[in-house]
Amino acid sequence: MNWLKLLNKNLATLKIIVFAACSFPALRLYYLYRGDLLGINGLETLLHTSGFTALMLYMLTLAITPLRRVLSYAMILLRGGYGKRLGDWNWMVRLRRMLGVFCFMYALLHFLIYFYFELDLEFGELWLEIRERPFILAGMFALLLLLPLFLTSTDAAMRRLRKNWRRLHRLMYPIGVLIAVHYLWLSKPGVFDAYPYALIILLLLLFRLLAHMKLIFVRDDDGMLAKR
Ligand code: HEM
């Protein structure tokens, strides 16, 4: 049986595997925290792992649509059997919601770690912190914009909001810009760790723009690539 058909047929198993993989960083952090194994700069480890995992999950969620298009296009070029239609890659779309929800959960965990360990739950301190470390503001706006996407990630919300659901979820694009700004802005001079991730986010957003303008991967009604 074609592996792709197998994936489409075993979506429930795939979801359990992805759920476990997404939960692992948080479980590992909790284990290290409880065992006092976070190392000399425990807070940095907590903030780095939670922030970095949120960033990875954001990029994975945004990459689902381009990946489906590129992979189905590759199957056409390779004259593959199954996999030439976008629909053959629907199992990816079914995972997107889970990835998006986990992205919000890790961003929230990231904020709560910061709020608890750095601000001692003192909201009043937040303004002083923002003045000293303005990159926090970009992170806060990203988290605030992720909230309505999280709250409307249910089937009921999709049915209720209909076309407005797709419009609302276009917030994923400014969120990407805010996350990239947050990470680039906090980078210390001479440290370029954030640059490759900012570039990936930029390319994913560019892909969305070009696809939206129907300049790339235009599909006919059958989901096959349109003849130019
Ligand atoms: C209220 C929201 C947020 C606050 C207060 C916040 C705060 C912070 C702080 C204090 C740091 C550590 C900076 C340092 O190393 O000196 C940090 C790093 C980071 N944050 Fe955020 N952040 C927020 C939201 C987000 C969101 C929404 C994301 C991504 C989805 C994110 C991703 C990251 C990443 C990737 C790092 C760098 C980790 C590293 O390499 O050290 N943050 N954030």
A few lines on this structure:
This protein is an all-alpha fold and 228 residues long. Helices cover 75% and strands 0% of the residues. The chain has one domain (2-226).
Structural class: mainly alpha
> Could you tell me the strand content as a percent range?
under 5%
Summed up, the helix count is: 10
Number of strands: 0
Describe it for me?
- This protein is mainly α and 228 residues long.
- The protein has one domain.
- The protein is 75% helix and 0% strand.
- The chain contains ten helices and no strands.
- It has helices at 3-9, 11-34, 42-77, 90-118, 123-132, 135-151, 155-161, 163-168, 172-186, 194-212.
- Helix 2 runs antiparallel to helix 3, helix 3 (42-77) runs antiparallel to helix 4 and helix 4 (90-118) packs across helix 6.
- The longest helix has 36 residues, at 42-77.
- It is globular and about 55 Å long.
- It starts with a helix and ends in a 16-residue tail after the last helix.
- The model has no long low-confidence stretch (mean pLDDT 90).
- The site of protoporphyrin IX containing FE (HEM) has 21 residues, from helix 3, helix 4, helix 6 and helix 9.
Descriptive tags:
228 residues; mainly alpha; binds protoporphyrin IX containing FE
Topology overview:
Blueprint: H1 3-9, H2 11-34, H3 42-77, H4 90-118, H5 123-132, H6 135-151, H7 155-161, H8 163-168, H9 172-186, H10 194-212
Helix pairs in contact: 2-3, 2-4, 3-4, 3-10, 4-6, 6-9, 9-10
Bound molecules: protoporphyrin IX containing FE.
Protoporphyrin IX containing FE (HEM) binds next to helix 3, helix 4, helix 6 and helix 9.
